[in-house]
């Protein structure tokens, strides 16, 4: 008998992978709706980064990046999954476009570095690398969009989010610790 109820519920490996990918597409879509506008930046604070890095750490690099790629594609095609129910290709050309387009790479980085060994320091390193990957995409796009310097864009696109993202990373570690049994095996 397995120690994971999920494997007892969905016995087919492809089914488990599909449910995992769909769950993170839904999770990141819902987390985008928890959006707090900040007065000093055009980018809202959302719960998305938490779900992006969790997708990689929980599903692994390939399935995590697949789930985030599907999320971006759904939004691009018109599903209201981006922050505040936004959607469409034009949204990817706005201030949050770089962050959104970086989500598949961020999930991949988080999953690749976190591994499936259950070591918390490695898991935390994976989550941090995923977040830094999202920051990189966001800052690069904001520099193109605004024409501002790197320092100015960091003040707009990273600094306002650091404290909240540290909390999200700690929460992510706690979620992973609670969800990963001793015999953890990625989907």
Explained architecture:
The chain has one domain (17-179): Orthogonal Bundle (Arp2/3 complex 21 kDa subunit ARPC3), CATH 1.10.1760. Helices cover 66% and strands 2% of the residues. It is built from eight helices and two strands. A hairpin with an 8-residue loop joins strand 1 and strand 2 (45-46). The longest helix has 27 residues, at 120-146. The model has no long low-confidence stretch (mean pLDDT 90).
Coarse morphology: globular
Q: What Rg do the Cα atoms give?
A: 16 Å
CATH first level: Mainly Alpha
Which whole number gives the mean pLDDT? 90
Order of strands, widest sheet: 1-2
Brief description of this entry?
The longest helix is centred in the last third of the chain and has 27 residues, at 120-146. Helices cover 66% and strands 2% of the residues. It has eight helices and two strands, in the order ααββαααααα.
Task: Summarize the topology.
Blueprint: H1 5-9, H2 13-31, E1 35-36, E2 45-46, H3 48-59, H4 61-76, H5 97-114, H6 120-146, H7 150-157, H8 162-179
Antiparallel strand pairs: 1-2
Helix pairs in contact: 2-3, 2-4, 3-4, 3-5, 3-6, 3-8, 4-5, 5-6, 6-7, 6-8
